[in-house]
Design brief:
Layout: E1 5-12, E2 21-28, H1 35-44, E3 72-75, E4 78-81, E5 94-97, E6 104-106, E7 109-110, H2 113-121, H3 142-151, H4 159-163, H5 176-186, H6 195-202, H7 216-220, H8 227-248
Length: 249
């Protein structure tokens, strides 16, 4: 009986400036295998489908439980996490590509710097002066705490940016994840001290005004974060702030 194999077609790129190419691999099948497991098998024995020795495929991963967001890639045309993509549930040949929204460093490894730059731009943190004990923080109403928990699930995986037609190399749009993080930190009792700074950032070029309302992001988010609800909420908040600033500045 012939050995059962997994057939992969992987888009590879040797360096940031080199041309991409597709290389095929056929590896032994194992039950309950995920895409990361398949890539690790290629790394262990880097031989392509033609039986030629090749370089191991480069990719990123960390937690292996859909928490860190590092293993994002396009799998069979859909941006998602490789750690949660089970081989048994994927149509073969399995096509693996890097997310096109981000610069490719090598093979499936991408540079997600634009996401972290966006978080810096909207001040997605709670500033605390000093490291001394400040005592217990202010309590949040339970309804707001539940909303905050949902928004805090973001792992900066980049899937929402890959799915968004308004995010590309020619666009400065910060993306839905950053808008949602503004909502998260603006609703925090301490984070609200910098609320206006975050609203100002959203109103700049590349901010919330560049959202085309395609709603692809909420469908693609692996954590099910209500991104479109956050965008609608922040649209309302920035409009209120703009009117207030116009009449009272």
């Amino acid at each position: 009986m012939a050995e059962k194999l997994i057939h992969l077609k992987i888009t590879r790129q040797d360096s940031p400036n080199s041309a991409p190419y597709v290389e095929e691999f056929k590896i032994p099948y194992r039950p309950n295998m995920n895409v990361i497991g398949a890539l690790m098998e290629i790394q262990r024995n880097p031989v392509n489908a033609q039986g030629q020795k090749t370089s191991p495929v480069n990719w990123e991963s960390n937690c292996l439980e859909e928490v860190c967001g590092a293993c994002s890639m396009v799998i069979n045309g859909k941006p998602r996490q490789a750690c949660s993509a089970l081989i048994d549930k994927l149509e073969q040949p399995i096509r693996l590509e890097p997310m096109s929204t981000f610069p490719v460093q090598r093979d499936l490894s991408i540079d997600r710097s634009r996401m972290f730059d966006a978080l810096k731009r909207v001040k997605a943190w709670i500033p605390i002066d000093g490291t001394h004990d400040l005592g217990p923080g202010p309590r949040m109403p339970e309804v707001e705490r539940q909303w905050a928990y949902e928004l805090s699930k973001c792992m900066t995986c980049g899937v929402c940016l890959e799915a968004c037609p308004n995010v590309n190399q020619k666009s400065d749009f910060i993306g839905p994840f950053a808008i949602s993080q503004v909502r998260l930190f603006n609703q925090h009792p301490t984070g609200a001290m910098n609320k206006h700074e975050r609203l100002e950032a959203l109103m700049e070029d590349g901010g919330i005004g560049d959202c085309g309302n395609s709603q692809n992001c909420v469908q693609a988010c692996p954590k099910g974060i209500p991104l479109t609800t956050s965008i609608a909420h922040m649209n309302k908040e920035t409009t209120k702030y703009a009117v207030k600033r116009f009449f009272f500045s």
